[in-house]
Design brief:
Layout: H1 2-10, H2 14-26, E1 30-38, E2 53-56, H3 60-68, H4 76-83, E3 86-89, H5 91-98, H6 104-115, E4 121-125, E5 134-141, H7 147-174, H8 186-196, H9 201-208, H10 212-226, H11 231-240
Antiparallel strand pairs: 1-2, 1-5, 3-4, 4-5
Helix pairs in contact: 1-7, 2-7, 8-10, 8-11, 9-10, 10-11
C-alpha cells in the first residue's frame, strides 16, 4: 500500500491517478469503478451534469446509458452517497427491495445494472471539502462474485481500501481536469487569470498587447463557456475547476 500511495502522491495527471487506482482495486476483486464528483452542489441539486467530473473503466456501452444518459442520478447507492459519508455495502439495495422502498426509477437502475453484471460491490462517499462539493466512488465486484464474498473482502481490507480511495479522491481534486465540457481556451484562461490578479481591463490589454474591446470579448466568451453571468463568477468557477494558473506540461 505504501508503494501505491507514493505513486499516487507523485502523479501529475488525473489519468495517472485513475490508472493506478483501477489497477490497485482490481487486486481486491473490484474490476469496474465509477467515480463522480461535483463542486456545485446545492441543497436541491447535485449541479449541472456538464460540470460533473465522471471517471469510469466500465465498458463503453454501459457508460453511454448509465453515465451519459443520466441514469446514474436515480441509482439507490448514488442517493446514499449524496446524503452520507463513509462506506456502504450493496446489501442496502436488497434491503430496500425487500421493504418495497425503491422508486420505479430506482428499480429501473437496479434492473439495468443486473443485466450488465453490476450486482455486487461497495460504495464510498468522501468527506466533503465544502458545502458545494460531493464525491463518491462505486467499486463493482468481478462478475460471478456474490455480495457475501464482497462483504468478506471488506471485513479484511476495507479500512485500507477506504484510505487508498480517499487519498486518490483528494489527489484528483488537486489536479486540473481536461475532460470538462466547459473547457476554457488559452486566451480565455489568461484574461481570467489577470482578472484574478486584480488587473483592470486596460491593464490586461496593455499586458497582453490587445485592445480593451478584445479583452472584453475574451471575458464574454469565458463567461459563456462557463455558463455564468459575471466575470467574478467566471473566475470563481474556473478556479474551483482547476482551470486557472495551470502549469504547462
Amino acid at each position: 500500500m505504501l508503494t501505491f500511495l507514493e505513486r499516487l502522491v507523485r502523479a501529475k495527471t488525473i489519468e495517472e491517478v485513475w490508472s493506478n487506482l483501477t489497477r490497485q482495486m482490481a487486486g481486491y476483486g473490484f474490476d469496474r469503478l465509477l467515480y463522480g464528483c461535483t463542486t456545485f452542489k446545492t441543497e436541491r441539486s447535485i449541479g449541472d451534469p456538464a460540470d460533473h467530473m465522471m471517471l469510469s473503466n466500465h465498458p463503453q456501452e454501459y457508460i453511454e446509458r448509465f453515465i451519459n444518459g443520466g441514469m446514474f442520478i436515480n441509482g439507490p447507492m448514488v442517493r446514499w452517497a449524496i446524503d452520507n459519508e463513509g462506506s456502504c455495502s450493496w446489501d442496502r439495495i436488497r434491503e430496500l427491495e425487500a421493504r418495497g422502498a425503491l422508486s420505479d426509477a430506482e428499480k429501473a437502475v437496479v434492473a439495468f445494472n443486473r443485466r450488465h453484471g453490476v450486482t455486487a460491490g461497495y460504495s464510498l462517499s468522501f468527506p466533503s471539502l465544502s458545502s458545494r462539493t460531493k464525491g463518491g466512488l462505486a467499486l463493482v465486484a468481478r462478475r460471478g462474485m456474490t455480495q457475501e464474498e464482497v462483504n468478506g473482502i471488506w471485513e479484511r481490507h476495507g479500512r485500507g481500501i477506504e484510505v487508498i480511495c480517499n487519498v486518490a479522491h483528494l489527489k484528483i481534486m488537486s489536479l486540473p481536469f481536461r475532460g470538462l465540457h466547459r473547457q476554457l481556451t488559452d486566451r480565455q484562461r489568461e484574461v481570467l487569470e489577470w482578472v484574478g490578479e486584480g488587473k483592470t481591463i486596460q491593464d490586461i490589454a496593455t499586458i497582453m498587447g490587445l485592445t480593451p474591446a478584445t479583452v472584453e470579448k475574451h471575458l464574454r466568451l469565458a463567461r459563456n463557456t462557463l455558463d455564468v453571468e459575471t466575470t467574478a463568477q467566471a473566475v470563481l468557477k474556473a478556479s474551483v475547476q482547476k482551470q486557472l494558473f495551470v502549469i504547462s506540461g
